[in-house]
Write a structure and sequence with these properties.
Helix content: 40-55%
Number of domains: 2
Order of helices and strands: EHEHEHEHEHEHEHEHEHEEH
Structural class: alpha/beta
Strand content: 15-25%
CATH architecture of the largest domain: 3-Layer(aba) Sandwich
Number of helices: 10
Shape: elongated
Length: 328
């Protein structure tokens, strides 16, 4: 049973960034706040994700609060993960805190886990929520791109371009481990953009014997370096490097790019995407459409139910992975 009157027009909107941070989140916060203020809403920022909500870390936001943040990486609201919020008891506590602070609707910027929490607030407790896709993994359904993904791919490409120079100069096999626990999107995009020889992703099995045979055959023909990109959820860089060295007899090195992919100045595409999505979130609240996730499909704003927004399928995964091999 809903404990809120969703027919009542909201007066105060909360904003929260949850889960892993990503470049462009600040641009989304800025857009939400300034569009909300334009239409007369009071704006509140919730610090440190759902964990901060349960600790009542809530601040007032105005035009000045979001000045000069559109080009900054990370999130001015900070972010964290919360075990306490994961069950309904924690969510019920969160609802009481939102009521206490007179917050009538909540805009959640985050990924799969953040969406599930926001969806539960709406479906179980009837609290008005809207989701914006803030994750570098691009694994949210209903949108072609998520906030931060474009920047993360470019950051990884910049690093791999430098590593390739060393790989070629020292005639080595390099394994580059990028982020992507359940999604191989970043790995495949980076492999294509960097001209890598192989890519390993969690969505499909990988033939290590074939790869090592290709490396040995290439070495026999005079190929002096080899670049392999692996998503962290599909294997660990150091283990794959040991396997390659053992099976080929060639010297291998690994590099884990890690959290460097989350930081940095957001690209123009991420800033514009975040700004459009932030404005669309306020439009949804003005129409009193709740329990929605907002994205962009074919350059048009797309609004879907939370239940349809998680577990995005990488439609072109096999095509892209095969293209990496064709271009070797």
């Amino acid at each position: 049973m809903a404990i809120f009157n969703t027919n009542k027009k909201p007066k105060k909107i909360g904003i929260i960034t949850s889960g892993g941070d990503g470049p462009g989140m600040n641009a989304a916060i800025r857009s939400v706040v300034r569009c909300g203020l334009k239409y007369g809403y009071e704006m509140a920022g919730i610090m440190r994700g759902y964990a901060g909500l349960l600790e009542e870390e809530i601040v007032s936001l105005n035009h000045r609060s979001v000045s000069n943040i559109i080009n900054r990486g990370g999130t001015i609201l900070k972010t964290a993960r919360s075990k306490e919020f994961s069950d309904d008891e924690g969510k019920e506590k969160a609802i009481e805190i939102l009521k206490k602070h007179r917050i009538d609707a909540l805009i959640v910027i985050g990924g799969d886990g953040s969406y599930k929490g926001a969806a539960r607030l709406w479906e179980k407790f009837g609290f008005p929520t809207i989701g914006l896709p803030g994750t570098i993994d691009n694994d949210i359904n209903g949108t072609d791109q998520t906030i931060g993904c474009h920047t993360a791919v470019n950051t990884a490409l910049d690093a791999i371009d430098k590593i390739r120079d060393t790989a070629h100069s020292m005639e080595r096999v390099f394994i580059i481990e990028v982020m992507g626990n359940k999604s191989g999107y970043i790995a495949v995009e980076v492999a294509l953009g960097a001209g890598a020889e192989d890519v390993i992703v969690p969505e499909r099995p990988f033939d290590f014997e074939r790869m090592c045979k290709d490396i040995k055959d290439g070495n026999t023909r005079g190929k002096v370096s080899w670049m392999i990109v692996v998503a962290e959820g599909a294997g660990k860089g150091h283990e794959i490097a040991n396997t390659v060295t053992t099976m080929t007899g060639l010297e291998s090195r690994f590099v884990v790019l890690g959290h460097v992919q989350r930081g940095g100045v957001p690209t123009g595409l991420d800033r514009i995407l975040a700004t459009r999505l932030g404005a669309a979130a306020i439009d949804c609240i003005r129409r009193q459409e709740y329990g929605k996730a907002i994205g962009v499909l074919q350059d048009e704003i797309n609004v879907i139910d939370f239940k349809d927004a998680t577990h995005k399928e990488f439609k072109h995964l096999d095509e892209f992975c095969n293209l990496v091999k064709i271009l070797t």
